[in-house]
Amino acid sequence: ADVMLTHEAPLGIEMIEDLKEASKDEWVPLELAYSHHSQTLLTYAVETVRPKMLFHGHFHVGYKEDVLFVDDDGQGFSTSVYGMDMNRHSRNIGVFNTVDHSFVWVN
């Protein structure tokens, strides 16, 4: 697949891992475990589908990070992961060009 749209973020995103670490005391351990499980399932899907780009929400932070994943055959591949921020914040809206697969933030 060229593009994957999800709510959750996969594992391995430095920005998200830092955010979770900084706020871990604000969450019930069971919720953190549920989130980690959800991210693990999505990471497996990413490693299977091998998208070039992935867009997600959930954590409400706007960023782009190129992430190296490894599929079941041990082959590495890179996916550009974009986190979309929440309403009324910058980097919550963007335009994806379906012809050349470019992406630009609107705000």
Description:
The chain is an alpha/beta fold and 107 residues long. It contains 2 helices and 6 strands; from the N terminus they run E-H-H-E-E-E-E-E. It has helices at residues 14-22, 29-49; strands spanning 3-6, 53-56, 63-70, 76-83, 94-96, 103-105. A 4-stranded mixed beta sheet has the order 1-2-4-3, with no helix packed on it. A two-stranded antiparallel sheet has the order 5-6. A hairpin with a 6-residue loop joins strand 5 (94-96) and strand 6 (103-105). The longest helix has 21 residues, at 29-49. The two termini are 27 Å apart. The model has no long low-confidence stretch (mean pLDDT 91).
Show the helix and strand layout.
Layout lengths: L2 E4 L7 H9 L6 H21 L3 E4 L6 E8 L5 E8 L10 E3 L6 E3 L2
Parallel strand pairs: 1-2, 2-4
Antiparallel strand pairs: 3-4, 5-6
Rg measurement, Å: 14 Å
Structural class label: alpha/beta
Order of helices and strands: EHHEEEEE
- The best one-word shape is flat
Keyphrases for this structure?
single chain, 107 residues, alpha/beta, two-stranded antiparallel sheet, 28% strand
